Amino acid sequence: MSAREERAALTPGTSLYDYALFRRGIEPDGRIPRKGYPLPDGPPEPGPRDLTWHQARAVVTDALTPLLADPDPVRAAEAVHRRVADLAMSPRTLLAHTTRLALADEDAARRTARQLVRTGTHVTAVGVGMSLLIRLGEPEDVPWLKALGMLHGLVDTASAALDPLDRQAAALLVLHSRDRSRQLTALTDAVSSGDAEAIRSALLDVPHEQLMWQPRRLAEAADLYGLLRARPRDPELLALTGRLLHRMADQQDSRPQILDYPPARAVYEALVRHADELPPTPEHRSLLLSIALDLHSGAPVLLNWRPGRLRALLDALDRLLPGPATGDRQEEWFRRNRHLPFARAGDGDRPRWEVVVVHGSADSSAVETRILADGVPLVPALFGKGRGNPPEYLLDSGRLRAGPEPREVQLVEAYCTEGCCGALYVTIHRDGDSVVWDGWRGAVGPTPPAYRFDAAAYDAELARAERDLSWCWPARSTARLIAAGLRDRPELTARWEVSESWIATDWRDPDTTVVQLRYTPSAPPPGTGGSLYFMWWLPNDDGPPRDRAAAALQRLETQDPKAFAVFGGGNHELAEALGYREPPRTPRA
């Protein structure tokens, strides 16, 4: 280490940028710790201010807007250092509002941002500069952002600023910071070496659970599109590409990553063009069908396709896929869903409206209702924080039927519950010869327009979707029949002071029907209240779903389910008073 580097590490006025370079230089193996190098003065303490989101926005706007218009970047940066210390606001809140500031002079703000990033000594002030570069950054800012992204707490801001400038660098920062088990070290080391063959091998060796976790970042870090161009007929690489694309298209837990992956269309084209190189195994058939379902009614429809290209890709996949098959559960999934993305493709590009019920993926029991208006899948277009509600909720219940009285319907709830990240609602009503969807609530972005459908076509399409049970497997059929029986005979559960919470199939074992019941005692013990939940698992015994559902309903008629179902949690005081033990918590990995 040079004398200059020692002084840089020990001098209080050392910039965070110089400090980051110093820490990288003294590491024996040059690797960044998972959470980044520790900040020289420790992480900033959250401020004591108790402000609403709108109040915080006003405070940040008033504090920083005048400073960022100063043409002297040195003076402005010094003022920002002083001002952010006075705000006593959590860094996360401050930076979130900084990215949204209206800037009177973007050039002046960019110069100040660079001064903060390159010479700043306080992590929050440097974060302000990085937040501004999310919008204002240019290629010359990449080295500074890459270095600062190595520090604890700055990776998210750095990667967001790098995304429009150097996606591979942004992806590497994210993967470094999220790789708890160090399963991606071989890949990140290979990317750093620039050896394409080593990158390919390391990418193919990434465990399945990691592929599910950050598919877009893995594709960007490894330059998946570049690998495909170099090896377009590599069957292992093509299969991995399909798995990454399918996971990116999923919106189980957030905005579909495929919408933020710039090479998406080109990668889909490359996959479909050479998909005949994949061995015709059940796994590959299901994978290609999943890709077809995504291109037919999922988030990838929203990509900026040239006219006719989606239809061409679906036609190519249709020719590649064999007819119905029978066999294990994966083959049965293929058989049930083989027709879905192709049977209605003949509609072409004309405006259309349809309800499509699809299986979430070939290896999952997740089911969603996909709704398209004028060819646009509404849930990813307007919300994108979770899958559409299941057909049992939207179709079996008749919620989508249109009557003269307006009815508000929840189309999707955020994966983390409505109380956390919201839900998407629409109001449906019949107006003469039309059915109108308007009164949108919870949409992300601008308020969606009203959709007006021909009533006869609407009713016919809805009736078709309600009748089409080709997606349904035996355990799911059992669940639907039990739910229908309880709707018709609510007294079966009311006599035990329980009610249906949800009925579906176990996501870990799709061949098991699960009935969750809510127990709300009419006379709870003094000092208690609320509800308890009980889980009843019905493994598949190969009997007809109708017989299995009838047996379950008969048991509810004669036995209190609290005596045979498993206690699943609820109000702690009520459970303790009634002698129910809380279920053990599942440890986090």
Description:
The protein has helices spanning 3-10, 16-26, 53-68, 73-87, 91-98, 106-119, 123-136, 142-148, 155-162, 167-178, 185-193, 196-204, 208-213, 215-222, 224-230, 235-249, 264-273, 282-297, 309-320, 329-337, 340-343, 378-382, 391-396, 418-421, 455-467, 474-488, 491-494, 545-558, 572-578, and strands at 353-359, 367-373, 376-377, 407-413, 423-431, 434-441, 451-454, 498-505, 512-519, 532-539, 566-570. The chain has 589 residues and is α+β, with helices and mostly antiparallel strands. The strands form three sheets. Strands 4-5-6-7 form a four-stranded antiparallel β-sheet. Strand 5 (423-431) and strand 6 form a beta hairpin. The longest helix has 16 residues, at 53-68. It starts with a helix and ends in an 11-residue tail after the last helix.
Mean pLDDT: 88
> Number of helix segments?
29
Order of strands side by side in the largest beta sheet?
A: 4-5-6-7
Strand content: 5-15%
User: Helicity range of the residues?
Assistant: 40-55%
Ordered list of secondary-structure elements with their pairings:
Blueprint: H1 3-10, H2 16-26, H3 53-68, H4 73-87, H5 91-98, H6 106-119, H7 123-136, H8 142-148, H9 155-162, H10 167-178, H11 185-193, H12 196-204, H13 208-213, H14 215-222, H15 224-230, H16 235-249, H17 264-273, H18 282-297, H19 309-320, H20 329-337, H21 340-343, E1 353-359, E2 367-373, E3 376-377, H22 378-382, H23 391-396, E4 407-413, H24 418-421, E5 423-431, E6 434-441, E7 451-454, H25 455-467, H26 474-488, H27 491-494, E8 498-505, E9 512-519, E10 532-539, H28 545-558, E11 566-570, H29 572-578
Helix pairs in contact: 1-2, 3-4, 3-5, 4-6, 4-7, 5-7, 6-7, 7-9, 8-9, 9-10, 10-14, 11-12, 14-15, 14-16, 16-17, 16-18, 18-19, 18-20, 26-28
